Amino acid sequence: MNAPSRMSPAAAEQQKGRGSVHKNGAPRILDRAFARLLQRRTRFGLEGTGAVEHLVRASGGKEAPAGAPAFLVGHQMEVAQAGHASKGAIRIQNVDKVYHAREGAVQAVLDCSLDIRAGEICMIVGPSGCGKTTLLNAIAGFHEITGGTIYLDDEMLCGPDKPRAEPGPDRVVVFQNGALFPWKTNLENVTFGPLVQGRLTKAQAAEKARGMMADAGLGGVEHNYPGEVSSGVRRRVEIVRALMNDPKVLLLDEPFRALDSLTKSVMHEALLEIYYRNKVTIFFITHDLEEAIFLGHRVAIMTTRPCKPKKMLEVDIPHPRDYSVLTSPRFRELMEETVNAVHEEAVKAFEAGEKEM
Ligand SMILES: Nc1ncnc2c1ncn2[C@@H]1O[C@H](COP(=O)(O)OP(=O)(O)OP(=O)(O)O)[C@@H](O)[C@H]1O
Ligand SMILES: [Mg+2]
What we know:
It contains eleven helices and ten strands. It is of the alpha/beta class. It has two domains: about 10-80, no CATH class; about 90-170 and about 245-350, P-loop containing nucleotide triphosphate hydrolases (Rossmann fold, 3-Layer(aba) Sandwich). It has a six-stranded mixed sheet with strand order 6-7-8-3-9-10, with helices on both faces. Strand 1 (about 90-100) and strand 2 (about 105-115) form a beta hairpin. The longest helix has 23 residues, at about 330-350. The protein binds adenosine-5'-triphosphate and magnesium ion (MG).
């Protein structure tokens, strides 16, 4: 990603390795790791609100939790934890979904209950065909449920008297196969939503889009068409486009599935950086267990069809995270726990005829 363009003078000074901003006598922690933190965190918009001062104050007062990357200090830990967003809590209560196909009824979801906190990244994993997309579609309002209730911030989206949620800009879906308009530039794709809704003027939308694209490392591709950039860049454009609507919830259905592992790892860090700037609730379906643990505050491991949570895994590795956590012992432990839980369901699904995890 490009170097941040809006770095505060203090942060810039630190990056050059000169001088100190520790005016309040807090311990001097400007080692290489701290410099790296500044470099990275300034992208999260903290510099404009006195990030360096926050960091210095925090370093004087709070300990980073056990297992936290060494460069994290108190305030940074808090900023990145789930639950700091005030909106976007999803409550799925006893939800059922039956499809009436030609071959007969298919019970895709049965008595599924799941509480997702506002501002949480909740990863959903489970065997192929278990009902994950069905659940996402119900939240998005793409189809009806046959039982139970789904709430967004205590407001009922769908329930007994209203089986289908109203789709709305408060819940935006990013699909597996992408959905950018190929005839529009990346910038035009990103500004499309607020312009169509009449929420922003052209100038306002362009300004907001340019800012968000720059934050997502997309400065320089605004005037390219989606077909002219890599698939990883296209994915980022889509995520920024989704966030342009200021949604409460981002619904992601295997958005990085088609990407190679290197591009995927770049996307993971990019997504986290975007998330740290735009606290939304993220409902993220994946088959990639490493992706699930790296990104998620929690991982919901679903049963084979009909789908409901079999196990909720709390990923107690603090955010902000970077790829160094992948080699930590705790990460490996969580992977093992997830693999074991998923394996049992995958075997059941396989025996039932589904051939993929
Ligand atoms: N429109 C439909 N009509 C009938 N059956 C359907 C329909 N959509 C999905 N199903 C069935 O419901 C079950 C759950 O499907 P769903 O797409 O939610 O699974 P999934 O967990 O997202 O799978 P994958 O991981 O492969 O994407 C599957 O058995 C599927 O065949
Ligand atoms: Mg699916």
